Please model this.
Amino acid sequence: MKRYKLLSNQVFIENRKRFASTLAKNSIAIFNSNEVIPKNGDAYYDFKQNSDMFWLTGIDQEECAVVIFPDCAIPAYREALFIKRTNEHIAVWDGHKYTKQEATEASGIENVFWMDEFDGMIRAIVNMAERIYLNTNENDRASSTVPYKDLRFIDEMRQRFPLHQYERAAPMLQRLRSVKSTLEIEYMKHAIEISNQMFLRVLKFVKPGVKEYEIEAEVIHEFIRNGARGHSFSPIVAAGKNACTLHYIDNADTCNDGDLLLLDTGAEYGNYISDMTRTFPINGKFTARQKAVYNAVLRVMRAAKSMLKPGVMLMEYHAEVCKIMEQELIQLGLISVDDIKNQNPAWPAFKKYFMHGTSHFLGLDVHDVGMRYEPMKAGMMFSCEPGIYIPEEGIGIRLENEILITDNGCIDLMEHIPIEADHIETLMHQ
Ligand code: GLY
Ligand code: MN
Ligand code: MN
Model:
C-alpha cells in the first residue's frame, strides 16, 4: 500500500503511447527501476524510484523493469513489465511488494512477469529488434561519478548483444516528460497544497529564538501528516545572512530578532515534487529596508511571470529578467549605472546580488528534465524564483512560485499562497 493516492493508470498508458510513437521502426526500449542504495552496515537509503521508469509505468518499487517493443512479433512482449518476485520471507521482513495484479492496476500493463524471467526473455526477443533504446541520466547538472543501475545495464547489454544499434532514450523522455498531462497537473497541485499548509503552519510558529531545525521539524510534520513522503529536496531554512548561501541546508542556527527567514522547501507527493520559497521577518515585522528589497524581488517575480508563455526561450527570458533586476538593484543603491558601464560582460554587476537562474523545469524531479534550448510549450511547468542576496546587510530574499505554461500565457499555481509583505505580517500577528 502506498501512502499517496495512486495516479490513474491512464496517465501511464498515455505516457507509454506517446513514448512508443517516437521510437524508430523495429526498436526495443528497456527501462529499469532505481536500486536501493546501501548506506553503512546493513542500512540503506530510502528508495526513490527512477523518474523515467515511474513516468512510463507508475511502478514505485526497486528491482523492476519495463520493455517497450511495439513491433515485436510476439504480442505479449510489445509491452511487458517485470517485477521483483516476492515471497513470504520478504513479506515478513520488508513488507508488501506488488503482486502481478497490483502491478497491472498501477501501470495498465497486462503482461507482467517476475524479474528473474527478464534475462531469458530479453534473449528471446532482442534479435527481432534492430535498435535498442537504453536510458541514462542526461541531466546536464548531474555530476556524480557513482555507476548507477542504468550505466551498468548498458555495459551488460553491450557485452551480450554487441552488434545491435544502441540509441539514447533520454532526449525523448526529456521532451515528453516536460509537457504535463491534465492529471499530472492536478496531482502536482496537491503537492503544492501541502506546501501551502506547511507555510501557514510555519508562519504561526516562527519567532525570535527558535532554531532553524525546529522550523524544519514543523515543515516535515505538516508534510508527513498530509500524506507526503517527505521533502522534495533538502530543505533550506536560512535565517539572516545564512540566506545568502544558496544551498544552505545545515539549518542549525538561531533565528534572531530583526532578521529575515528564507524557507525554500516543498512536499513530495506520490513522486511529484513541489518547490516554493518564501522569505519573511522572524519577529513578524519587516524593517523599511527589508521591505524595500522584498518588494523589489516581488516586482521582478511578477514581471518575470508575465513573460512566460509558449514560444519563449528560457535563456532569453532569463536575460530579460536580469535587465529588470538590474534596474531594481540600482534603485536599491546596490549597484550604479557606472558599475554597469564598467562591468565585465562575463560577470555583469547584477550577479553580485542575483547570481542564479530565474527558472527551472518542475515535475517528478525538482530540477526536472526538459530541453532548455527549445521554445516553451503549453503544459510545461517552471519555477519562477528571483532573489536578492546582500551578505553585507545580512539580507537574503528569494521568492519562488510554480508556473504552468498554458496556450494563452501562464498560470501561477501558487498565486493563492500568501506573498504580499503586508499579508504575511498580518498572518504572523494573528
Ligand atoms: N530548492 C531548489 C530550487 O529552488 O531550485
Ligand atoms: Mn526552491
Ligand atoms: Mn526552484
